[in-house]
Amino acid sequence: MRPPVLDLRALQSLVAILDTASFTRAAEQLNYSQSAISMQIKRLEAELGTRLIERGSVLRPTRQGRQALGHAREMLRLNSELRQRVAESEVAGRVRLGMPADFAFYLPDTLTVFAERYPQVETEVRTELSDALVRSVAAGEIDLAIVTRQAHSPGGTRLRREPLKWVGAPGSAAHRQEPLPLALYPENTCEFRQAATRRLDAIGRAWRPAYVSQAFAALHSPVSAGLAVTVATPSMLGAHLEILDEDATGLPPLPEVDIAMHRRPGRLGYAARQLADLLVERLRTTGEPGASVTP
């Protein structure tokens, strides 16, 4: 014979009583009458066959009550989680997210989690350079944009900060060439390029744009072949690239860059707000394995 199922409302009352050390305050908290909450505890104790609360000048759990309290908290948590998951599965609509192409490569885990939580939400990802994305989100063309914060486009929610480093191929002598051959993003679109060229100009080091592309993947090839030097964050490095020692190469130190999230003007829809919260949680607190930033 199956044992009877315990009443979650009675477990909720048990938690409230022991948390507040008062039947009266627990009843007020749960919007029950005191007689109703007392009856719930009596039925719960009868079903479990033991006293759960020591009634005296101070209410406290019995030994069995302490054990029941831990299980009650977990059952209530699971109840809330189930309700939330069912509610989330009913959320529908579309979210438009923008990010640089190189950054999009590092977000599949986050987008997978979001898709599992909200299977009826369509996520549209647009890849452009940060400068264009900031304009798009300001115009309301996309809901969210993850970008490298530019000097001329500040604001947004800062997700993380990463250092910029000079990068080359192991054993390459590209950094000794005059003028210095650089693999760069297009002019006036990239904080990485601005930071590098300003620092080089400040120390009087001649340079030339040897390779120009909007994607780090395209710049990777000439740099890994020893034909040029580029600028990246440590987490962007893949095979055949290494950080160049500034003291050994004479290259100037570079600043840090901020990765920020911009939201379109006005109130975001529920799905867009949930994706924004998930991105903040994963990129600000833990990031993703290998997560990088791009201009």
TrEMBL record:
GO terms for molecular function: DNA binding; DNA-binding transcription factor activity. The keyword DNA-binding applies. The keyword RNA-binding does not apply. Residues 6-62 form the HTH lysR-type domain. Keywords: DNA-binding, Transcription, Transcription regulation. Gene3D superfamilies: Periplasmic binding protein-like II, Winged helix-like DNA-binding domain superfamily/Winged helix DNA-binding domain. Pfam families: HTH_1 (PF00126), LysR_substrate (PF03466). It comes from the Bacteria. InterPro entries: LTTR, LysR_HTH_N, LysR_subst-bd, WH-like_DNA-bd_sf, WH_DNA-bd_sf. Belongs to the LysR transcriptional regulatory family. This is LysR family transcriptional regulator. The lineage of its organism: Bacteria, Pseudomonadati, Pseudomonadota, Gammaproteobacteria, Salinisphaerales.
